[in-house]
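Sample pair:
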Amino acid sequence: MFKKILIANRGEIACRVIKSAKKLGIKTVAVYSDADREALHVKMADEAVHIGPAPSSQSYIVIAKILDAIDATGANAVHPGYGFLSENAHFAEALKAKAVAFIGPPPRAIEAMGDKITSKKIAAAAGVSTVPGHMGLIADADEAVKIAGEIGYPVMIKASAGGGGKGMRIAWNDTEAREGFQSSKNEAKSSFGDDRIFIEKFVTQPRHIEIQMLGDQHGNLIYLGERECSIQRRNQKVIEEAPSPFLDAETRRAMGEQAVALAKAVGYFSAGTVEFIVDGSRKFYFLEMNTRLQVEHPVTELITGVDLVEEMIRVAAGEPLRLRQADVRLDGWAIESRLYAEDPYRSFLPSIGRLTRYQPPVEGQREGGTIVRNDTGVFEGGEISMYYDPMIAKLCTWAPDRLTAIDAMARALDDFEVEGIGHNLPFLSAVMEHQRFREGRLTTAFIAEEFPDGFTGVHPTEAAARSLAAVAAILNLRQQKRGVLISGALANHPRKVGRDWVATLAGFSFALSTREEGGKVIVSFEDGFSHAISSDWLPGRSHAAFIVDGKRVGVKTSTHGAGWRLRQGGMDEIVHVRSPRVAQLARLMPKKLPPDISKMLLCPMPGVVTAIAVNEGDTVEAGQSLATVEAMKMENVLRAERRGVVKRIAAMAGATMAVDEPIMEFE
């Protein structure tokens, strides 16, 4: 077994690998850039080596710097995680030349499967069903348009060396094919150092289902069931689960056997994933093979009990697999939600800054037999930078059945506290409560179809609004009682706490009263409806569990002016609890109007302006490209919302922009 492993990665996956290595008694080495000097993976490792500036092109994907770190620390094995150098055959060969073990597949398999064009040819030869497409390289945008027209729209434009949603665009017409080709090419060059592009038919109403592979260096190969990865945004997975709610045993077996056949065709060993597109009739088509550990591997670990990272280490050390196909059992259901540093209210654009609060839910077994797991690479007080992928953590839950696992996830999301940056926790909560998701009626177009105008939050139903109003009444009562205690200590005539209040939120207004009874607070509404609530919340706490009529509800709480900001189940509401007289007067207050920014193009995210597509004085049409901003390895094209004339350009290509900083102004 290895004595010291260097992890050629960062963030949560580096932390994940360190945990399994420590379990095996193996020392670990972290590498870090300028931006990651204080990162969690650096603190967790036994040793750490600085490898350069913040951009990954100058640090994490520079092979020579990783090799120097190996020489400096005497590591005899390297785990690449995912992304960066994980599917770089030249890196694997360089390690082999130094007699350092690569904890991954053989270089020839990486090379064959890492090239999407070559992999499809090999898959077809191995008897694996493949998607129709153009398997040759594409020279320029004109050729891309020509090929797309021959295949028939819609098409998927993809980076040959791509992965993780980078360098991918769907085109529905010639204009989108032309623009998508250039954007995919740019992203591919930036992310992988390889800008080769190919095009294939985009299967409509598809489900994205993948098979987890595991093989050793002695010819043994098994599959560990499947993962459903259909909840995607911009071709990036957001929510995954295992097993799939769609597959039957026969289809699972057929997909698994084809995956094994493909792996055998390239002499594969270690962990790997064969991805398929599955249509509504359960016909499946090979998409690609990822010759690395997948981001979503924890859900497979939760339903199989197999530590995939440990198995990768053992396989790299030459050990045979400890499992045979007949030993594989799928137990229960697991859900993974990817927590991203992005603002769901701003079209999910990246967000950066300091984590002023980061309190994940407690990991481990919960009542009812459910399990919570959180793979993360950040900590409270840490910084989310613009240089890397925006994923903060992977929150996972396990339960004996799918709906219980979903409910456990909803509760865990409500218990997850993140402040200081924009994040997608509200959106993830909304998906958990969405009826279509709960029924398992998924496609890769789920988000586009169910949130066509973007995410604007969850508007509470009357029942949900009553519940939040009742919670706010409890907060108000505790706050008022605290004031009574203080005034009683300072004066001979302490004030009394009233029983009658009016709670307003989201267009609802509830007249209510509160009384304490048997350790609970009874909140009674004017129409006779009531809630019995208990909680350990005290003023100053940012989160608490409220037992509302016997059901636990986790609520994030904070003051907001004279009201309360309550967040739960994707809802984010300001609740005011006032005396009846004050409520009457509040209804007479004028509404404050927001400033008019309709004639300005503001930067929607922190990033770098890579291109300005217009000049001052130009007339632009609705939908026309105005500027391109790059953030967290993704290109974002900003377009005109309506016809207009460019009055002033405030930013030039190469400028680093903050959120809402003006890029241009219109007449």
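The chain has six domains: 4-103, 104-130+208-331, 132-201, 333-455, 462-586, 600-666.
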